[in-house]
């Protein structure tokens, strides 16, 4: 399967703490993207990091990419209850015609 | 304005029936997708169309047939529905394959 793996599968933290999710993938990529899915809703893109980038920030989000290890991490700082959702990484192949999601991390932020 | 809209939002039908899910995007994107999300939340790509042409066709039963009348529409027709087809189906679009993907709100299909 070309599907990426994410860990942990589930994460529960207290409000105000940081949450870190990891994504590993198998093939060479053009870029990697992180998405968020609230229960029963569609996915919303959070951030895109290209293969020649190592780190990217957006608000309370920080994404790193290590292409040598074929892995990425998403850090959410100062978490809020509203951050409770499932988070997915997705990889886009170098050919640009393959787009695969990871298995997802379910994050629960306890108020 | 809804960027990617799919209808219906919920679909309950009996085994053996044929059903369609419609999808439209008003973003001017040239690539559209269908994804299936199962009960374990795994998201699996089913089809990808670029400028109305099929690009990706993952291992999906022949009972599933996508149709793209134009760049803005990608409909999914399912014949002879089976219990295992129950899932949430997401339509999505992007500008070329390498851009961010915008998702519809999903269609929850329940086959009884």
Give structural notes.
- The complex is a heterodimer of chains A (111) and B (112).
- Chain A is globular and about 45 Å long.
- With 111 residues, chain A is mostly beta strands.
- In chain A, 0% of the residues lie in helices and 59% in strands.
- In chain A, strands 2, 4, 5, 9, 10 and 11 form a 6-stranded mixed beta sheet that branches.
- Chain B starts with a strand and ends with a strand.
- In chain B, strands 2, 4, 5, 6, 9, 10 and 11 form a 7-stranded mixed beta sheet that branches. Chain B has a 4-stranded antiparallel beta sheet with strand order 1-3-8-7, with no helix packed on it.
- The mean pLDDT of chain B is 90.
- Chain B is built from no helices and 11 strands.
- With 112 residues, chain B is mainly beta.
- The interface between A and B is medium-sized, with 26 and 25 residues.
Overall shape of chain A: it is globular
Q: Report the count of strand segments of chain B.
A: 11
Estimated radius of gyration of chain A? 13 Å
The profile of the biggest β sheet of chain B is:
7 strands, mixed
Beta-strand portion of chain A reads over 45%
> Structural class of the helices, strands and pairings of chain B?
mainly beta
So how many helices of chain B?
0
Secondary structure: number of strands of chain A? 11
The greatest interface between two protein chains, and residues involved on each side, is:
A-B, 26 and 25 residues
Report the oligomer.
heterodimer
Mean pLDDT of chain A: 91
| Proportion in helices of chain B | under 10%
List the SSEs and their pairings:
The complex is a heterodimer of chains A (111) and B (112).
Chain A (H helix, E strand, L loop, with lengths): L4 E3 L2 E5 L4 E6 L4 E9 L5 E8 L4 E4 L2 E6 L4 E6 L8 E9 L5 E3 L3 E6 L1
Chain B lengths: L3 E4 L2 E4 L5 E7 L5 E7 L5 E8 L2 E5 L6 E7 L2 E6 L8 E8 L7 E2 L3 E5 L1
Parallel strand pairs in B: 2-11
Antiparallel strand pairs in B: 1-3, 3-8, 4-5, 4-9, 5-6, 7-8, 9-10, 9-11
């Amino acid at each position: 399967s070309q599907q990426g793996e994410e860990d942990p599968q589930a994460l529960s933290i207290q409000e105000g703490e940081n949450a870190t999710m990891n994504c590993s993938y198998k093939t060479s990529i053009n870029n990697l993207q992180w998405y968020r899915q609230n229960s029963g809703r569609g996915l919303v893109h959070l951030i895109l990091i290209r293969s020649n980038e190592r780190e990217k920030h957006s608000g309370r989000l920080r994404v790193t990419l290590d292409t040598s290890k074929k892995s990425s991490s998403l850090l959410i700082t100062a978490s809020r209850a509203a951050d409770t959702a499932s988070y997915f990484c997705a990889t886009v192949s170098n050919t640009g015609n393959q787009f695969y999601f990871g298995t997802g991390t379910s994050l629960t932020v306890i108020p | 304005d809804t960027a990617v809209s799919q209808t219906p939002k919920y679909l309950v039908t009996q085994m053996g029936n044929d059903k369609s899910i419609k999808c439209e995007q008003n973003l001017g994107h040239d690539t559209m997708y269908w994804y299936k999300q199962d009960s374990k939340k795994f998201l699996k790509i089913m089809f990808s169309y670029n400028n109305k042409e099929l690009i990706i066709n993952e291992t999906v039963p022949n009972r599933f047939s996508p149709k793209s009348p134009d760049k803005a529409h990608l409909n999914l027709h399912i014949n002879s529905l089976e219990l295992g087809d129950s899932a949430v189906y997401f339509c999505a679009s992007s500008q070329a394959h390498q851009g961010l993907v915008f998702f519809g709100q999903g269609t929850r299909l329940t086959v009884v």
